[in-house]
């Protein structure tokens, strides 16, 4: 997969993209990430990429020319048309399902908005999708771009040691993940659940599923309402409801 990120602040990406899974993904060639400085596509000595809004108002707006020319440059290298995403608070909310969709693409271009936003003509002519990572205000689209890259890259084949790791994560099946434990067996009086030490794989699988359902019901009941539940899931939820009734 190829990911190009168009930004006014390329230095922001230096740390996050040179560590951990993203670094290994880049080194292995599973994911190619290019950081494009939009100021390289300006034509004045001050490298100005923003201007005052027509009609007045506070703040500055990102000019269309650098973004159009950067995309012309990228597209000139390939006949393929990329999925061009604007990171924007006006976009669809980014979810795990969105990450899975994007992971099936060969080429993504992420445009990082800044200031009061981008000239509307960028949306009209270039953008194929707008994405928001949540209902809060950030300085620009750089951090959202990092979130999208992190979530998408780990779903690309060859990035994780096994795709099972990704499939077992929270939200991958609509639920929160079950609790995890490792050595020591007892720490400061807190013990690992005995079922995890039993060696009974079916009992462990069932316990993990039940705890996943329990945690989702307690912390994110909204997810439970739209999750694709199996008949076993419904039986486990009935058991959880019975346990709550007994504890009252």
Can you tell me about this structure?
- This protein is an alpha/beta fold and 248 residues long.
- 38% of the residues lie in helices and 17% in strands.
- It is built from 9 helices and 9 strands.
- The strands form 3 sheets. Strands 2-1-6-5-7 form a 5-stranded parallel sheet. It has a two-stranded antiparallel sheet with strand order 3-4. A two-stranded antiparallel ribbon has the order 8-9.
- Helix 3 links the parallel strand 5 (83-93) and strand 6.
- Helix 3 (96-103) packs across helix 5 and helix 7 (201-219) crosses helix 9.
- The radius of gyration is 23 Å and the shape is elongated.
- The N and C termini lie far apart (53 Å).
List the helices and strands and how they pair.
Layout: E1 2-7, H1 20-28, E2 32-37, E3 50-51, E4 61-62, H2 64-75, E5 83-93, H3 96-103, E6 107-112, H4 120-125, E7 129-132, H5 142-153, H6 163-167, E8 186-187, E9 190-191, H7 201-219, H8 221-226, H9 231-247
Parallel strand pairs: 1-2, 1-6, 5-6, 5-7
Antiparallel strand pairs: 3-4, 8-9
Helix pairs in contact: 3-5, 7-9
Query: Could you describe the largest sheet, including whether it forms a barrel?
Result: 5 strands, parallel
Radius of gyration from the CA trace?
Answer: 23 Å
How many beta-strand segments? 9
Secondary-structure class? alpha/beta
Largest beta sheet: strand ordering: 2-1-6-5-7
Order of helices and strands: EHEEEHEHEHEHHEEHHH
Share of helical residues: 25-40%
Overall mean confidence score, pLDDT: 93
Regions with little confidence, pLDDT below 50 for 5+ residues:
none
Helical segment tally? 9
